[in-house]
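Section 5.1 Outputs to date
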Amino acid sequence: MGVWREVTLADIAKTDGYGMVDGPFGSNLPAADYTETGVPVIRGVNLSTGDVRFKDDAFIFVSERTAERLRRSLCVAEDIIFTKKGTLGQVGYIPRSHKYEKFLISSNQLKLSVNKQIADPLFVYYSVSSPSSRAKIVQDSESTGVPKINLSYLRQFPILLPSIDQQRAVARILSSLDDKIELNRRMNATLEAMARALFKAWFVDFEPVHANQEKRTSTSASPEIAALFPSDFKNGLPQGFQAMRLGEVLELIESGSRPKGGIDPNLKDGIPSLGAESVNGLGVYDYSKTKFVTRDFFESMRRGQLRDYDVLIYKDGAYVGRKGMFGRGFPFRESAVNEHVFILRSNEKASQFYLYFELNPEKLAQLNANSAQPGLNQSAMKSFELSLPPHPVLSAFDESVKPLIDKVFENCKEIRTLSELRDSLLPPLISGRIRVGGGLESYAS
């Protein structure tokens, strides 16, 4: 199956003078250079600790002129990006097909352009993003007392390299799993967008009401559903809709708790205690950061235990107002939230799906706009204003969006399974303990 040899990243970098570079010094890229459009800048938010190859959002931009001035720090498809200061161990791989042809790395990033005659860029990405490589980066940075790495360190970073054919075979296996994971994530984003668009059409734009007024067919509701809507308004709301406050439609609002002395970071099983990483939309869970509490503590908790379709609101800190929904996609039979998260359950006047889409994170965050410390309390949450549709309309909305949301949770569960398979295969594949040709063939002795 060929000989595996240890090389450094400098050995496999392009030799054109730009194979390994760092980002521009901060003074060379001030905030004043940022623009609304142009060349995207890759920052830490676009990288991950091995769970996603590239986070394709939250870009800031610079002009073409600025990018040309800083062309030494430009990168393109198949380049590998490292965080050099901040959350060490973050890595990214720019996909082959992308709507942007080039990027600029920020001052806190490093870039590796791989010599494809020697190494496969995707294999190298999987090698440097493996748990052992990320742990080495963190450990080496901490041993120097400085929480950062530099180009000199990265140039000497070792990886094991088999033949180019075997590199490509390993990369194909791992990337096929990542491709399916990414497909599911994109599908989830589309499904949530569909449900959100329906909510906006019915409960923000009141499109069926306007269609009834004009005696035309609604574009967002079937004739049977459109008949549930009125054809007139009263005090700015459709007839039958009620202006209410959140507290009037809640059966429950509560946050979780944590054991005395805090949550044990070394506890890797038990009952998940969800925080900011799992309050980030529908079916978006960062399993790598999930913390756990013991079953004894969970059973002693008087609040914070989760049920399917619970609406979750992060109540303080930088993520104040961020929302999520707990559901069948989370791979644990029982779960709780920590003290930073509110659980919301509606009474018979409303529904969980309506609550999720009605609660706007930006508006929630404004509820404590005058507070020195960002945070939401129960009183502020209960004061949130909403316009409640009549029960037949709510029921029709629930029936329309429930299949979409259930599919999100089903995809989330599959993402979890695929991620676990990828994470279990990655270490033996990139170390040679599993040898591959056209497929998985054998464990090396």
